[in-house]
Amino acid sequence: MSFSPDRDMPVLRDILRQAGDTEIMPRFRTLADADITEKKSSIDLVTDADLLAEKYITARLSERFPDALIVGEEACEANPGLITALADAELAFTIDPVDGTFNFSAGLPVFGTITAVVVKGETVAGLIYDPVLGDTLVAVKGAGARVLSRAGGETLARVIAPRPLASMVGTISINDVDPATRRRIGGNLGKTKMAFGYNCSAYEYWMAATGKVDFIGHFKLMPWDHLAGVLIHQEAGGFTARHDGTPYRAGENRGGILSAPNRELWEEIRREVVDA
What we know:
alpha+beta
């Protein structure tokens, strides 16, 4: 079955909602130590909620799209080759079942479920679901971005209006860079009005796409973290590119990216914060 936004976006939203209701929220603030496992470090965690939510979403997607490539964060721990296969797949889905696992495991309600739809290497739709509130940030390529509330409301998502660097609020995720780079960029963020850090791409893209913050940046490029958010941010009027100015595409996982309200501010933030 091919992907049809009109037909399939409501289904995808329902799949994420069901995964949140059945696999994620019942485990929030109820995890035992045995339910949390370190992957590569003490801040890179996986929980039963991650594993079971991804299993649920994968099963539902496979039922509806049996020929699609499904690239889940936890599945890629066992098969990293799934990432490069994204570039050529006729139809693919990326899944981050619990983005912000550190926050989730610490009982902080700042996490989300992210899903992107990729057709022949192009992201055509994205969803970021908030399991706590039940709201979903969605975008279809060429059709804008919207916030859909659990109660049925709908609002347009737009990036913030341009303003000077000294008035900006933003974040550059520096957990995955060397100490010297971390100190340099951390110091450069002092040129802005306020720097924030949620350790959660889902919330960072949500805030950037809805005009709550000016910019966000990342050095670790995993497709389940960024493909949906980049599309949503672009459909909300923003500009995102890799640090070398090239577009971020499915299958790429090296280098850094930066999202800003427009290309001019992107250039300024890269120059004054990322590169200075």
